[in-house]
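This part of the workshop introduces the protein records we will be handling. A record pairs a protein's sequence with a compact description of its fold. Backbone structure tokens are a discrete shorthand for how the chain folds in space. The question running through the whole workshop is how a given chain folds. The record below serves as our worked example for the rest of this section.
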Amino acid sequence: MITKLSNFTHKSFVGYTNPSGLLFRPKNILFGYNGKGKSSIAIGIKDEFLKDIIKKPENFRIFDRDFVSNSLLIENSEDKIKGVEASFSKGDVDIENKIKELEKLIIKEDEIEKLDTNISKLHKEIRTEIDKIHDRRKGKSNIQKKSKDESIERVIELYKKDFQDAKKIESDDENLIKINGDNAIEKQIAQNENLKPLNFSKIQTPLIEEVKAIFKEKFGEDISIPEFEIVQWIESGLKLHKEGDNCKFCNGNLDFLDVKSKLAEFKENKRHKAIEKLKQFREQLQSLLDSIKIIEKESKTYSTNIGTDIEQYFTAISAKKNTIVSLITSCQSKIDKIEIQETFDFELLAETLKVIEESISSISKAKHQLLLELRKKQNNLTTLVKGAIGLEIRKSATIKEKLKEVKDKVVDVKEKRENNKKKQQDIQDLKQQKSLTKDFADFVSQILNDINISLKVVLDTDNKNYIIKSTNENATLTIKDISEGEKNLLALLFFYYELFADNKQQRIKPEIELIIVDDPISSMDDSNKFYILEMMKNLLELKNQQIFVMTHSWDDYCNLSYGQENNQTFATFEIRKNNGVSTLVELSRKVKPYNYLFKEIYEFSKKSGEDIKTECQIYHYPNVMRRIFEEWYGFKIGRNLNFTSNLQKQIENDFSITSNNQKTKLGLLIKVCNILSHSINGSMNPQEIHQSAKYLMRLIEDKDKLHFDKMKHNN
């Protein structure tokens, strides 16, 4: 048994040897905050044990932060875990013979693949036969083959549906089988869709109304206003000149601005404007006449494609040509002699426009109706032709024979593969029955299930090592896929259960003499801490092995040491660090967590600014201060200390804090407790933490001196 370290040097331990009054016992608990030297002393204990030349690595077990990578994972792997042998059941002596018999019955995969190749060949032959029937039946009609990407079963299913759709139109199979496709209706549809549209030039209603007013207006003979054509001529000529030019026609003087002014006067003249509007009206009448002539040329094409019934509409349109000519003549007469009262038959014009528009509409409707009928016929014919194709495919003896052959081969392949799969599973089960690691995997998985961890450990295909799986999705996981808490728990379970030679954890493996556990509850969820603590207590009760359990948590230390006394069997220590050098001191288990933490902050508050520069665990103190503040406030004021936005006002009122200086210090304390106790980052200020510790102690001393004095002297 190790009683002390001798001249141990590692990191913060420098030439350290236990004092004579501070020796290790068979069962030892060491408390120390992170950074004080727990991991270093674990190494020191192991090295001290191995100084005895008769001791071997198999005589000790050590659990630390590197256990997963150093002791659990297989080298160069993130998902395979080393197998742990634990003989919890008897293997069958005949297993190997059974495995060999099963292996002989497994059909080779290349033989099954030959059947797959034959099935693929039959599929191609069936598809070729189907496409031949399709091409012959569709004739010149535009009916597409089924997609090449579809399976042969899906293709036949689609043709079956085509046949069922056709039966809704033609129920007699004898009639349906006689139907073949052609493109006659498709051509008719194309010809009708390509007919030129019939458009006519409409006359705008506002213009008609303006011309009506002109015909009613009386115009006197105004000799001061040139004729309309002369005004247009002057306007064209003026565009060739600019101010200051001589006349480009006679080279005489030209008063550009005077001519421009007179031109504007001429154009604004009522008579001139009326003639301009009449000419617009005449041009639109002429456009209407030209439209009718174009429509007449389409008469024969339309009647040939749509039918002779529509000729009456073309005749009605042609009959209006003379009417429009007479209306053009009336308009021209008014243009020539605007001052003479002429008549214009606007009712006749309206009737003419109506006849033309209605006739064109009737022709368009006839065309549209014919297209609807043709498309319906075409759709029906397409449905019937596709149905006839489907019917012939159903009746094809060749296709039936090949489909039956495919079905038989598919069933054969499926049976062979399923039989192989079953035999391989039987072989795997038999191999696992042989494996000493199988019982261990099942046992650990059951423990994980009992404590509600959604992981399980199963044998890898090599039947020697393990893989981790999710119980929810059965997905294989790597160490990176699980949380730190799950990783530590899994590692600790493996470490703990590997110590024992039986499944009830009653017989420790006889070769094990020393067990070291460094911070077993690190990163554990609260729900799992109790289970881990019970495991550690079980270790501490082992009779023949020396045990060292180390923790950074005062609560865990108190739980583990509860009910124990320092004696020849049991000892407790604290790892402390001063000026960067670690040492061991004896630690009482009677100090309650609050008392211990209070004393720690009290001592920290008494340090100087120079001292805190070497304080390696200064970022641990905010969380300790928060716990002290919460507990003291709770029993002093009688309610919980909730770190909310109005907390400072609440505390100021509770303790009558009015000084701005005190309020500032209180605000810093709240900030340190509320923010820094939950995170570690580079923005933390050691001076702020130290100042807050001093203020917390002063606040308690001022408001509860009796409590303060008792706690600071508590040992």
Notes: The first strand starts at residue 8 and ends at 10. The longest helix spans residues 346-395.
